[in-house]
Write a structure and sequence with these properties.
about 25% helix, globular, binds protoporphyrin IX containing FE, alpha+beta, eight-stranded antiparallel beta barrel
């Protein structure tokens, strides 16, 4: 099952702002439609359709999985009216590393999981993989939170962008939306 993020003039999320963080941005649009799709969508007139697939974990270890499952919140909480779509592409240097080398950077050095855990359950998250679908980004990251936690989310992204892991990010766009 694919998930499509289609920017255009209609959708279940209103785009509040979007900005390139690293590399090229995305064309402006007023709305974002997030929807499941049984098949890869055909090219459309939409401003930009991005497609990803929720997949199995690559780096998480058992103890981390247990800890995450114990505290994480699901998507679509009624009070989580704000969301962020952050598409990310990592560099060739990242993809040339082995799984072990990537885990070392991702967690041992950058503490992506250990340092992000404290933002749960305020921030609900879903990672979609795009790289093997021939998409312009490797990952579509999606986060939902209540307006009261908007600053908490800024702290989280600021913390992650300062990690060694992020030195391998060659394209990142930050799209902020509000449920319509
Ligand atoms: C809410 C707090 C967060 C938690 C608990 C969290 C946790 C995780 C975990 C457990 C994984 C690994 C999945 C796997 O094993 O394959 C992961 C991957 C990832 N996360 Fe986060 N994350 C958080 C916030 C963020 C934020 C804010 C961003 C973007 C700004 C982000 C971007 C990514 C990316 C791009 C990956 C894929 C990395 C790769 O496979 O190379 N995460 N995250």
């Amino acid at each position: 099952m694919f998930t499509t993020f289609t920017a255009g003039d209609a959708g279940n999320w209103q785009i509040l702002r979007m900005a390139p963080v690293t590399g090229d941005g995305l064309a402006p649009a007023s709305h974002l439609a997030v929807a499941p799709a049984a098949a890869l969508p055909a090219a459309s007139a939409a401003s930009w359709p991005l497609v990803g697939v929720a997949s199995h974990v690559r780096y998480v270890e058992r103890a981390e999985k247990t800890a995450l499952v114990a505290v994480q919140a699901g998507l679509s909480r009624p009070d989580a009216t704000l969301a962020a779509l952050i598409p990310i592409r990592k560099s060739a240097a990242w993809w040339e590393l082995t799984q072990e080398e990537r885990r070392r950077i991702f967690e041992d050095k950058s503490q992506h999981i250990a340092a992000s855990m404290k933002y749960l359950p305020a921030i609900a998250r879903q990672l979609y993989h795009s790289r093997d679908l021939g998409q312009p980004f490797d990952f579509l990251t999606w986060f939902e939170f209540a307006p009261a936690h908007a600053q908490t989310f800024e702290d989280l992204v600021g913390m992650l962008r300062a990690t060694e892991e992020w030195s391998y990010v060659e394209r990142e766009v930050d799209v902020r939306v509000r449920r319509t």
